[in-house]
């Protein structure tokens, strides 16, 4: 494999394999494979007990701390709860 010009740049992302972008609420639009749990049908239409139990971001499962960030956004949880309920009707 030939050497590229950026191979010697110390701050190039390709040269920092351990560097991981920190997940924040600004990344919610990139969250995929959202799994909702805690839906209580007696609580219709609020579903205030629903929560995101699992999800992925950049192809990796979210940690407990990252899931807490996701669950702190009630609009995100509610939107995905409704999406989940739509799939139950199919």
Largest sheet geometry: 3 strands, antiparallel
Question: Which sequence of strands runs across the widest sheet?
Answer: 1-2-3
Q: State the separation between the terminal residues, measured CA to CA.
A: 50 Å
Radius of gyration (Å): 18 Å
DSSP summary: helix tally: 2
Describe this protein's structure.
By secondary structure, the protein is an alpha+beta fold. It has a domain of 62 residues. Helix content is 26%, strand content 17%. It contains two helices and three strands. The chain has a three-stranded antiparallel sheet, with helices on one face. The longest helix has 15 residues.
Summarize the helices and strands and which ones pair or pack.
Layout (H helix, E strand, L loop, with lengths): L31 E6 L13 E7 L2 E2 L2 H8 L2 H15 L2
Antiparallel strand pairs: 1-2, 2-3
Quick summary:
The protein has 90 residues and is of the alpha+beta class.
